[in-house]
């Protein structure tokens, strides 16, 4: 075989560059919300449902949620005070109106400043994005709940919520 | 002593120490056993069969949509279950999930939540020990 090494290298470079550009486009896209990277938060907030990205709600929402964990949507999700303080700090620091602003801003459209909505699935922008999803799709046995994002967004745990 | 003797001596000491102290699971079971004995002097050990009954019974004394442990953990402890939000839960049987029940605080936290969820009350130490016996025996 006699494939010139230069063209192989050039080919690889092109592939590498394209991949880098694609990843960047994806990560900067409208559908990307950085996933939870903090171990205690994944452990405590990711066992009953996916650990929702902190950039999906404003700081006031997380603050309120974290002091009402003993009645969390009907469940008792309460934590010891140290863990609660740690998780609260992580969520608040990365909230849609704090460190996660760059990603969360788009979901905050129509949310009054200072409001503390408790459901991502009731944010006006979320509702609009999902108004084409039919009732039978929501009731499909593998979906079961609007909060089950990974049932439809297969890469949700990596932060990608594209329409697929 | 030769280095080999040292090594053997060390290994023996290590072996003895680990049986004497026991792993985190044994410590937890011992704690439940002591509490069960304190509650009932007639206590004579945990029973995997009683644990299975606790696990499978439709108690209907907690929340309406979770009458049994199997409501989330599924009918077969060797396979995965799922939460009400449909997130998968790794199997509960120790043989398939060997990392389970090592962290006493985690075990206690979930007994507290889930017993309340299913039974509408906390589980007794006897019930916790029985249930763990069931999960560790399969």
UniProtKB/TrEMBL annotation, chain A:
Domain of life assignment: Bacteria
Domain Cytochrome c: 24-131
InterPro entries, per the entry: Cyt_c-like_dom, Dihaem_cytochrome-c
Entry keyword set: Heme, Iron, Metal-binding
Pfam families: DHC (PF09626)
Annotated PROSITE patterns: CYTC
Protein name: Cytochrome C
Automatic annotation (TrEMBL), chain B:
Gene3D superfamilies the record matches: Cytochrome c-like domain
PROSITE patterns, per database record: CYTC
Keyword match Ribosomal protein: no
Keyword Disulfide bond: no
Ranges for domain Cytochrome c: 46-138
Superkingdom per UniProt: Bacteria
Key words of the record: Heme, Iron, Metal-binding
Pfam families linked to this entry: DUF1924
InterPro entries recorded: Cyt_c-like_dom, Cyt_c-like_dom_sf, DUF1924_SHP
N-terminal signal peptide: none
Name the record gives this protein: DUF1924 domain-containing protein
Source taxonomy: Bacteria, Pseudomonadati, Pseudomonadota, Betaproteobacteria, Rhodocyclales
């Amino acid at each position: 075989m006699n494939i010139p090494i230069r063209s192989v290298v050039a080919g690889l470079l092109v592939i590498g560059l394209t991949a880098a550009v694609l990843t960047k486009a994806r990560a900067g896209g409208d559908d990307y919300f950085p996933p939870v990277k903090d171990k205690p938060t994944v452990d405590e907030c990711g066992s009953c449902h996916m650990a929702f990205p902190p950039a999906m709600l404003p700081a006031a929402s997380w603050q309120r949620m974290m002091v009402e964990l003993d009645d969390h949507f009907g469940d008792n999700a309460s934590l010891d005070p140290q863990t609660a303080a740690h998780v609260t700090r992580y969520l608040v620091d990365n909230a849609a109106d704090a460190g996660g602003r760059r990603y969360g801003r788009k979901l905050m459209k129509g949310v009054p400043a200072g409001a503390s909505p408790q459901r991502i699935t009731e944010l006006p922008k979320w509702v609009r994005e999902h108004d084409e999803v039919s009732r039978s799709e929501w009731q499909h046995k593998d979906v079961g709940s609007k909060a089950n994002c990974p049932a439809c967004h297969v890469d949700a745990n990596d932060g990608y919520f594209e329409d697929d | 002593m030769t280095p080999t003797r040292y090594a053997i001596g060390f290994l023996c000491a290590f072996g003895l120490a680990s049986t004497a102290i026991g792993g985190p699971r044994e410590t937890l079971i011992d704690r439940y056993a002591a509490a069960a004995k304190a509650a009932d002097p007639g206590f004579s050990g945990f029973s995997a069969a009683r644990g299975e009954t606790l696990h499978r019974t439709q108690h209907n004394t907690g929340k309406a949509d979770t009458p049994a442990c199997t409501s989330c953990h599924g009918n077969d402890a060797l396979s995965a279950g799922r939460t009400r939000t449909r997130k998968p839960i790794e199997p509960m049987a120790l043989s398939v999930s060997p990392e389970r029940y090592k962290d006493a605080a985690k075990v206690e936290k979930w007994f507290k939540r889930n017993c309340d969820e299913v039974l509408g009350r906390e589980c007794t130490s006897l019930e916790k020990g029985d249930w763990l016996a069931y999960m560790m025996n399969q």
